TrEMBL record, chains A, B:
InterPro entries xref list: Ald_DH/histidinol_DH, Ald_DH_C, Ald_DH_N, Aldehyde_DH_dom, Aldehyde_DH_Superfamily, ALDH_KGSADH
Keywords on record: Oxidoreductase
Name recorded for this polypeptide: Aldehyde dehydrogenase (NADP(+))
Provenance organism: Croceitalea vernalis
Domain (Aldehyde dehydrogenase) ranges: 18-458
SUPFAM superfamilies named among the record's database cross-references: ALDH-like
Lineage: Bacteria, Pseudomonadati, Bacteroidota, Flavobacteriia, Flavobacteriales
Length: 527, 527
């Protein structure tokens, strides 16, 4: 069933000479399939097909785009066991995770379907004419959101389904009316191909134009570079490392026509445990955090990599319990040997930093590609003066930062770069007296969490997944939830435009029955 | 009354050694005032004050920010004649224009005041908890828009009031809760200082923090460069040339922490006159367009620089009438000798292009700094093959592009870069049969106009002022109308956050009585 070919609109293609295989980290061996890297002709074909598809796809009704999205979800479900098996063979992740992520992916597709079927997301705004206004008549003007054009989506290593081929970026781009060209992630090209095939079947079943979707294989960076630099590409979605995301952002910014890049990148997700919480519930939080740090082998962008507290006996106790609990958890497999070796390397480099003590570091023998979880501890002073300590170690690793007082804690938070999340653990209302600390944390993050863990990203309208740089390249948008659609659209105004030629969303009759801002009032009424 | 000093929060300062004067183009002589260019210390002070002011300003209620904005409008009005006189002395524009622009500026300030006083603009979204949900409980999560931080605003040469010191960028940034540092435009530094003073009085009267606003003089590019590169700057607003806007965008993109730049840049605003309109109403449109081309000495970003039509006798007639009418209009003064000399140079260079015929070029003697309006004509074929012809000639200049058929016309539009506006002139419903043409035009512009002129930008919610690059650096935002506030804010989520610590907009009780998205339903109800 897996051909290893590139999906160019409705056709499969393997014109290139370069090929690669994916790897099963649990079995520590290559998978059987051979993937053909897209060559220049195939990149060109995918983008030209997408550009042609845009002509009709941008005009497709919300109902038909919803049908397309729902059918993609159905076709992914129809892949059934083969998808789960392939997912596990290419990631080392357990079946439960594969099924959970598949559920989330289908949920995302269906939530965007619901959004565009309802239709109000286009933010229709109408200011009607006032011909008698002095000194100049007011002319009728109407505005709505329209898609940007072809979106290039980069698959993410750690979310083969929810942030890759038919993940949130693709679902939101389709919902907006943008064709999508996916640069498949080389670590799970088989999973990607299966999903790409499902999308293609859905596109054909729902009469979408050929080229609305393409899936390109690549093992290196060249395919991605060519896609981002191509004049037919109009926006980019990326989830991955700071280095990778920044490289794409720089490339896109240097184009003759710069294009928006939404890159969701690294984050260490600071957690602040306030004194009373530490004293009264320190052990319980230590157990909870041992679980959060190791969840998914620590391979979540919301993994809690930094735990801040004020120096106290109870912090010693918390450290001991966290370290013990962490070592009780079974080691688990990482996504790929490269990710495992990077983890080992980054962990070692971190542990060699001056003033750092190691409070937990799994020493037992583990199978190949498994991560040895670890916790380290450092003073607030050392943390503030050494920005190397601020960097993410992607994997089941966390650092306790022991600050001498609240002032140093505030300074430590202030010294950090932007983050996806920031968490406050508080007991007996002690947070009420920490407004400077909370404000400082708020200025650094996209999401504030109270008495919880940052892992687990609820897909709902109120979720902000993104944050000040380098958490993402543009903190004004989110990668998760319905508002992720805003990344791929621009407003367009129609002045004095004939009613019968207006898009349905802006017609007098309000045929879509959507919420519209009419002369400043939000209403569903017709004009 | 004009001191020539920089306004640093509540203080005036002239630490630098460089100074300059503004110029009265009507009288062809320098104005009396001496302006002190901001030096490095002053730039640093302005940004540090702004950053400190942000701590409180970002938390100020909508009502208090509205009072600030309305008071700025009042204080600008209170400047009365001295503002109008200074404006005219520094721009060569007539008193009527000065008063009109002042009215628009006050209207903008008051419309943002109204927006933030009402409060729903923060897009509050609430998803309440479902503790019993399987397999995982759903946690309460809430989201709203929060300000980015200090915004640097560049004054625009052609709108000393509406796009400069207290113009749309400043008004929208204040409304969002962002402190503003203005880099005053050197051509109207006196007008800028008067308005800056008005803003400062308003800030003091309404108890805004010191540093919420600063105004820096500069005659070159260094002050702007330092402002954009400074780590405390969080976003940039600019209106001006493609070269200038792109330079700022490049600088901001290369920063360690890239920041958003909204630059509204050049546009030639294509107008397509369909065959029947040309035949039946060609003369009337020729007269209308002669007025639009010369309005404000052609110094509007929405000036119609390109008129497209299909070759026909009626196009000859249109060309003749437009040329005659244009020459009947009195020549008028440009903003500055530099702008006038650039106009002359760009016009001459354009007129030397191969295959171009000059159908109107004012030859009479005019006072210094006046622009000699002109119309030229070229074939569609030449236009498509020579992108030099696509460039803006800032001033009262327009080019008629005569296409051999509709196919060539579509190709000509397709060959263009992004534009602020695109206009269709149609008669007897002929536009109904031009869907390819209209779609092509739509893909290039931010605003489509039917049977009208692009000059005249109505300030209302449905106005899109911005467009595909290079009309602006990010087509997803507008520089005009209430949605301009979206440029300066980012979403922030609060997960499981204690109700009494939430921002008012997200509290259960809905104390601000704003529209909120609660579990997917737009409502003003409390929880």
């Amino acid at each position: 069933m897996i051909t290893g070919k590139n999906q160019l609109g409705n056709s499969l293609s393997n014109l290139g000479t370069k090929s690669f295989k994916t790897f099963n980290p649990q079995q520590n061996k290559e998978n059987e399939w051979n993937f053909f890297e897209a060559n220049e002709t195939e990149i060109e074909t995918a983008l030209k097909l997408a550009d042609r598809a845009f002509e009709t796809f941008q005009k497709a009704s919300g109902a038909s785009r919803a049908l397309f999205l729902n059918t993609i979800a159905d076709e992914i479900e129809a892949l059934d066991d083969v998808l789960i098996t392939t997912y596990c063979a290419e990631t080392g992740l357990p079946e439960g995770r594969a099924k959970g992520e598949r559920g989330r992916t289908m949920g995302q597709l269906r939530s965007f379907a619901k959004l565009v079927e309802e239709g109000s997301w286009v933010k229709a705004s109408i200011d009607t004419a006032i011909p008698e206004r002095q000194p100049f008549p007011k002319i009728d003007i109407r505005k709505m959101m329209a898609p940007l054009g072809t979106v290039v989506v980069f698959g993410a290593s750690n979310f083969p389904l929810a942030y890759s081929t038919a993940g949130g970026d693709t679902a939101s781009a389709f919902a907006a009316g943008c064709p999508v060209v996916v640069k498949s992630h080389p670590m799970h090209a088989g999973t990607g191909e299966l999903v790409a095939h499902a999308i293609n079947i859905a596109a054909k079943k729902t009469n979408m134009p050929d080229g609305v979707f393409s899936n390109l294989n690549s093992s290196g960076i060249e395919v991605g570079q060519k896609l981002v630099n191509h004049p037919l590409t109009k926006a980019v979605g990326f989830t991955g490392s700071i280095q990778g995301g920044r490289a794409l952002f720089d490339m896109a910014s240097r184009r003759k026509e710069p294009i928006p890049v939404f890159a969701e990148m690294g984050s260490v997700n600071p957690v602040i445990i306030l004194p009373q919480a530490l004293q009264l519930k320190g052990e319980a939080w230590a157990k909870t955090y041992a679980g959060s740090i190791t969840l998914g082998t620590g391979q979540f962008c919301t993994n809690p990599g930094l735990l801040f507290a004020i120096k106290h006996d109870s912090l010693e106790n918390f450290t001991t319990v966290l370290s013990e609990e962490l070592l009780k958890i079974d080691a688990s497999c990482m996504l790929h040997p490269t990710i495992q070796s990077n983890y080992s390397k980054n962990k070692s480099e971190m542990m060699e930093q001056d003033g750092l003590s190691i409070t937990a570091d799994l020493k037992t023998n583990t199978p190949p590609n498994f991560a040895k979880q670890a916790v380290v501890k450092v003073s607030g002073e050392k943390f503030i003066s050494n920005t190397k300590l601020h960097q993410e170690v992607f994997g089941p690793f966390s650092m306790i930062v022991s600050c001498k007082d609240e002032e140093e804690l505030v300074k430590a938070i202030q010294s950090m770069e932007g983050q996806l999340t920031g968490t406050i653990i508080s007991e007996n209302g002690e947070v009420d007296n920490s407004s400077v600390l909370v404000n400082t944390l708020q200025s650094k993050v996209g999401r504030l969490i109270f008495n919880g863990v940052p892992t687990g990203v609820e897909v709902c309208p109120s979720m902000q997944h993104g944050g000040p740089y380098p958490a993402s390249t543009d903190s004004r948008f989110t990668a998760v939830g319905i508002h992720a659609i805003d990344r791929w659209v621009r407003p367009i105004s129609f002045q004095n435009w004939p009613n019968h030629l207006l898009p349905n969303a802006l017609m007098n009759e309000n045929p879509l029955k959507i919420e519209r801002l009419i002369n400043g009032e939000l209403t569903k009424r017709a004009i």
